[in-house]
Amino acid sequence: MLINLILIACGFALLIAGANALVDGACGIARRLGLPDRVTGLTVVAVGTAAPELVVGITSALEGHADMAFGNVAGSCLANLLLILGLSATITPLALGRRTVRFEIPASLAAIGALVAFANTGGALTALEGAVLLAGFIAFMACTVRAGLKEGAASAESGLASAADAESGAGAAPAAAEAAPAADDGLDALGRIKAVAGALAAHPLGAALFIAGGIALLKVGADLVITHSVAVASAVGISERVIGITVIALGTCLPELITSVVAAFRGNTDLAVGNVVGSNVTNVLLVMGAPALVATVPYGASYNLDFGLLALFTAVLAGFAHTGARGRMSRAGGGVFVVLYAAYLGLALIV
Predict the structure, then answer these.
(1) Secondary structure (H, E, C), the chain
(2) Tens-digit pLDDT profile for residues 236-264
(3) pTM of the model
């Protein structure tokens, strides 16, 4: 038991390191391509942090653990929405952009509806239905990237206009340049490491290496946490369904949790929101679509409640854009989401 707990702690350390690397690399690519942070969170970061769920989903389907496959997705999505977004909002209020409310959240609701409809038709998710879910995932990503490129181009044009207006103050640049070396000389060792890391993340190859390394660390860390958490839970005598929606779900959503919280602390609220919404769409369409291609995944009607709650709270998220501080999820709203998640976990353990 002690060894399991030590390895779980090591897994958390790898998750934190991987999340930092992933955020740095993703933001570097976003700046290079002119993509807004929100779009980067919806695509690169969302797919990368959903890798543990995807591996668990395919493995569960191949090994016949259907309860764990569906439980992983339902539990992870609820944890993403209530726990991760809630904690991020308690750190700093989260901006909910117009496109997030008008397209991305409705797309998430449509994905949930499609999965539940397919799963309740025949009591299983078939290869054809899995292919439809994957097609929906590809379409969502294509639309998101296309819109992001347009947003980036518009921002670049406004940035050029601002730069032209600022040219009148260019005379102050030499003085600032002369002062820079003195500031550099004052950097300590940690500061120099951070400066080098920032420079690497700004380069395309360096950003790609940061993302690849971050995803690898997230995967290894998640595996450590999941494997040894399951060992602890099994020793206590918890059922497979409960393990799926609690231990496995929490373990596989740890990358999203750490990534969103790190992004929130850094003020990248668009990245935090995009990561959660994008991860939920990815979980429903990709993480359930891919396993269905390799094996028919039986569905238990008991999960209708979990997915119903997921749809309800996703709609509530959109409602935050029209209440209180318009266009924002407040700290109070984040606290409510965290409490709701604690209540959901308590109910899952009792029922």
Answers:
(1) CHHHHHHHHHHHHHHHHHHHHHHHHHHHHHHHHCCCHHHHHHHHHHHHHCHHHHHHHHHHHHCCCHHHHHHHHHHHHHHHHHHHHHHHHHHCCEECCHHHHHHHHHHHHHHHHHHHHHHHCCCEECHHHHHHHHHHHHHHHHHHHHHHHHHHHHHHHHHHHHHHHHHHHHHHHHHHHHHHHHHHHCCCHHHHHHHHHHHHHHCHHHHHHHHHHHHHHHHHHHHHHHHHHHHHHHHHCCCHHHHHHHHHHHHHCHHHHHHHHHHHHCCCHHHHHHHHHHHHHHHHHHHHHHHHHHCCEECCCCHHHHHHHHHHHHHHHHHHCCCCCCCEECHHHHHHHHHHHHHHHHHHHHC
(2) 777 666 777 777 777 777 777 887 888 78
(3) 0.71
